[in-house]
Amino acid sequence: MSESKQKFTGDSNYNRDKSEEAGHFPASIVGSPEDSVVSVDLNIAVTGWNEGAERLYGYPASEVIGKPLTLLTLSRDLKELLNNIESVRRGGTVKVYETERVHKDGRHINLLVTLSPVKDDSGQIIGVSFVARDITKNKTAVEKLSASEDRYRTLFNSIDQGFCIIEMLFDENEKAIDYRFIEVNPVFEKMTGVPNIEALGEKTARQLIPNLEDKWVKIYGKVALTGESVRFEEGSEAMRRWFDVYGFRIDGEESRKVALLFNDISRRKLAEEKLRQSEERFRSVVNQSVGGTPRRLSNARRQTGRTRRTPCGSCKSRRTNEKSSNEGERGIF
């Protein structure tokens, strides 16, 4: 056995050296330095145990050789273990699967296992080898990522703001010409008037929204190219809406994807416009009220020939009535 191969401990009834020299012992049973390699006979008694197995399971070879592999197996996985061994015994095929085993201290270990036959000199299958790699950290990372994605999806679907991810389309000169919707949340349709099922189809934004203004493509294209986030309010005649938008690039410098978080602020803008118009009418009324009264009085004086000091009865009455009217207007506003 070469020095590059791992130390492998077996009992006296398992002639490993003879099998390996004959070329029947599978190369995978040696494995890489971090791999655990365990072999069992057809009665699932442990016949081989390498240093990787000692590190992985916490047992020295002296404590497991000759004992059933069920020592490391969860009760729920026992049937799977027996079925896999029987499958290899009958067909001699190699099987790869994920499973759990029990460490000496009782904790569970996630493993990626390669199962293969062990043969004697005559080619007869006399046992099964298990080459296992610890994937607990990877499994934990995947589970955390999955949980994170679930939280993201919950937030994505529950927020009352519109959200979408778009992919910018550029011409050969890196000029933004259009964009395509990659992902939209449930509120998107209500905020934009574009059905979600259509937004996620094959059409681009310009195809979905006829006469879409160039400004939208230009703004989002700049975000995709520079990575500079933007926040702005802008109206669209094509969509007959006003929006408050926050846009930012995602997936790195080479990405052409932009995420958009937005609100339909059309009602607020309509209210602001009505208020502006009301204020203009108010100013107009005030200007006419203040500037118009002296002219009417001056005309009345010229027609009657009366001076300010000697007003006629009708002029005096008219001035009194106009004064009351003006005071009433100022009281309303």
Brief sketch in words of this structure:
Helices cover 41% and strands 26% of the residues. With 333 residues, the protein is α+β, with helices and mostly antiparallel strands. The N terminus and C terminus are likely disordered.
Instruction: Give the strand tally.
Output: 11
Distance between the termini: 103 Å
- Looking at this structure, what is the CATH superfamily of the largest domain? PAS domain
Overall mean confidence score, pLDDT: 80
What is the H-and-E element order? EHEEHHEEEHEEHHHHEEEHH
Level of helix content?
40-55%
What would you say the CATH architecture of the largest domain is? Answer: 2-Layer Sandwich
* Poorly predicted residue ranges: 1-8, 11-28, 322-333
**Order of strands side by side in the largest beta sheet?**
1-3-2-6-5-4
Keywords:
about 325 residues; alpha+beta; Beta-Lactamase; 2 domains; six-stranded antiparallel beta sheet; five-stranded antiparallel beta sheet; elongated; disordered N terminus; disordered C terminus
Per-chain topology:
Layout: E1 8-10, H1 16-22, E2 36-41, E3 46-50, H2 51-57, H3 78-91, E4 95-102, E5 108-119, E6 125-134, H4 136-158, E7 162-170, E8 176-184, H5 187-192, H6 196-199, H7 205-208, H8 214-226, E9 230-236, E10 241-250, E11 257-264, H9 266-304, H10 313-332
Helix pairs in contact: 9-10
Task: Give an overview in words.
The protein is α+β, with helices and mostly antiparallel strands. The chain folds into 2 domains: 8-135, PAS domain (Beta-Lactamase, 2-Layer Sandwich); 159-268, Beta-Lactamase. The chain has helices spanning 16-22, 51-57, 78-91, 136-158, 187-192, 196-199, 205-208, 214-226, 266-304, 313-332, and strands at 8-10, 36-41, 46-50, 95-102, 108-119, 125-134, 162-170, 176-184, 230-236, 241-250, 257-264. Helix 9 packs antiparallel against helix 10.
